[in-house]
């Protein structure tokens, strides 16, 4: 299972990597959605995948791995109980499911080696050093309120702030501000008169965003990439700043001169070519000699780790490729692209 902030993907496979069941639900990060809602989404995805796998699937499961965004929240007993009960409601035997970080399964989806670095930039953002396929050191991943710099939330937040500034000034809006305002307050325009100054239009925009769940700011991030393609200077600044924050997080967890692989994962890096290109350029400064690759199917990475727990050989790179290959039907998710080296 890949339980992220926006989407939860559950995948059931055989030990040979054949996919026999899968399902999706909304995000299951307890920090973003609360423990109860996160548990409901996790149970929905896991139960749906087991149902799709057919009769007898629940009794045949030999290992399960949940890559959970916000996994540190499981240190709170109440949160852990919610998530463990979710697996039980879905039909997994008690104690069978192992919770790990979404960064660990993302790394596993991008490379079969046991050591390196993974950067996830989706709704949130975290860079993690991986040793023996487990997290040993991380940078950022502090959540939307005080961290996750360069993430979808952070990019969307910067876009919203820029839009509020332009609305407050009045006058023509840039492509970015126009797109964001249209998304947040469609059809609302400032009217003439002292009681309807441009600042009030900006406050209307701000009030609407404030009333929404904070995580919805991440939905504005794609608008930055589109405005960047139109040459919007504000979008260009946001893209470069996001890439700079993400590169800094990567360098924080790597030793000088090391050549271990770097795996890039998450919806921002999979879906935003401007951010990915800027990040790759910035990473080249401190990762010379390292393979920089996009993650493969992250739910497949979790399934591969589960297969290793069930006895699959860890040195079989062909088997790893089978588990982490991209989904090819039911619509292709941008996070499920094949693992591939990026140009340096």
Describe the structure.
The protein has 344 residues and is of the alpha/beta class. It folds into two domains: 2-111 and 293-341, ATPase, nucleotide binding domain (Nucleotidyltransferase, domain 5, 2-Layer Sandwich); 142-290, ATPase, nucleotide binding domain (Nucleotidyltransferase, domain 5, 2-Layer Sandwich), CATH 3.30.420. Helices cover 46% and strands 16% of the residues. It has 14 helices and eleven strands. The chain has helices at residues 30-33, 35-53, 57-60, 77-90, 102-110, 152-169, 175-184, 198-211, 221-229, 233-253, 267-271, 273-283, 298-309, 317-324, and strands spanning 2-3, 7-13, 19-26, 64-68, 97-101, 116-121, 125-131, 134-140, 262-265, 292-294, 340-341. The strands form two sheets. A six-stranded mixed β-sheet has the order 8-7-6-9-10-11, with helices on both faces. It has a five-stranded mixed β-sheet with strand order 3-2-1-4-5, with helices on both faces. The radius of gyration is 21 Å and the shape is globular. The model is unreliable at 329-344 (pLDDT under 50). Residues 2-281 form the ATPase BadF/BadG/BcrA/BcrD type domain. This is ATPase. Residues 324-336 have a biased composition (Basic and acidic residues). It comes from Nocardiopsis sinuspersici. Residues 324-344 are annotated as: Disordered.
